[in-house]
Amino acid sequence: MTNNIGKGFIHYKVTDPNDDPINPQSDTLRYGASVIQGKVWITFKKDMNIKLMKPLLISSFTTIDGREFNVHIGDNACLMIFKATNIIIHSIRIHHCKAQAPGMVMGLVTVSKIWIDHNTLYNCEDGLLDVTRGSANVTISNNWFREQDKVILLGHDDGYVRDINMKVTFVYNHFGPNCNQRMPRIHHRYAHVANNLYLGWMQYVIDGSMGPSLKSESNLFIAPKCGSKEVTWRKIGHTNGDKWQFHSVRDAFENGASFEVTKGSVCQSQIIAKNKFFKLLMLNQ
After folding, report:
1. For the chain, how many structural domains are there in total?
2. Is residue 282 assigned to a domain?
């Protein structure tokens, strides 16, 4: 994401947690993310609880950096990235947000080169994160997703064929406790899910439709003590089920977790030795 710095770079500091979507005021998050154009790196002066009155549309080449302080966005509208590129969202706590559109709380729509890193997302209406309408080159890393029914959706719907070009990477994320389904749900195209921790689930972890392709690599799936142990889910009688490509590579399974692979792949459980330690990233969230 080197395009976010360099010539013309602007450092903008948020000092005011208020929000006015009609007439954005200087020193607020909306002014820095939506009004100022060019390469803008946004930081915060102090701990903040920001209640957005309307969805915050983030401009291209914007970085929202919540490090050093506890920055919360919640209790109303949330973030929206639409037809934009080169955006970083780092170390923000997003929770109790209301859906901006059916199925969408934090929306990435027709975007490219987006990095969502080291954030905490929980307890929002419908899903936590949607990546849709031909978005590509999206990385979702080091985030903590918890306390949510529908977690992540990749792809607009079964009829939106532009999502066939979607490419999304999930790496080093923590899912749980109390996540139910869609971690993620994939329409049409490809997702690489690697080195994530799945701490239980209620229905399933990953599903898809319209011939999705998934590479699940080096994840740790810890099944719940009771209920569903299967990681994947397939709708009975789905006409595109034979086109799915779900592959498991060096995944680890505990508490009876299982992964139904497709296209002739073989799922081999990894035995975790008692003296094997995993280096977990401290999210400080």
Report:
1. 1
2. no
CB contact set of 87 (below 8 Å; sequence gap of 6+): 58, 60, 61, 62, 63, 81, 111, 113, 114, 115
In a domain, 168, yes or no: yes
3-state secondary structure 105-155: CEEEECCEEEEEECCEEECCCCCCEEEECCCEEEEEECCEEECEEECEEEC
Could you tell me if residue 85 is inside a domain?
no
Can you name the residues that pair with 245 across neighbouring β-strands?
213
Q: How many CB atoms are located within 10 Å of the residue 40 CB? A: 23
Using CB atoms within 10 Å of the CB of residue 99, give its burial: 0 to 12 exposed, 13 to 18 middle, 19+ buried. middle
Nearest partner of 97 among 57, 59, 53, judged by Cα: 53
Residue 145 within any structural domain of the chain: yes
β-sheet bridge partners, residue 131: 108, 154
Which DSSP helix (H) or strand (E) runs through 29? Answer: helix 29-30
This prediction has a pTM of 0.86
Contact 144, 117 (CB under 8 A): no
**What does the pLDDT look like over 136-163, one tens digit per residue?**
899 999 999 999 999 998 875 566 566 6
Q: Give the model confidence (pLDDT) of 70-87 as tens digits.
A: 999 999 999 999 999 999
Catalytically annotated residues: 182
CATH number at residue 267: 2.160.20.10
CA dist list (Å): 1 to 36, 107, 194, 209: 19, 20, 20, 31
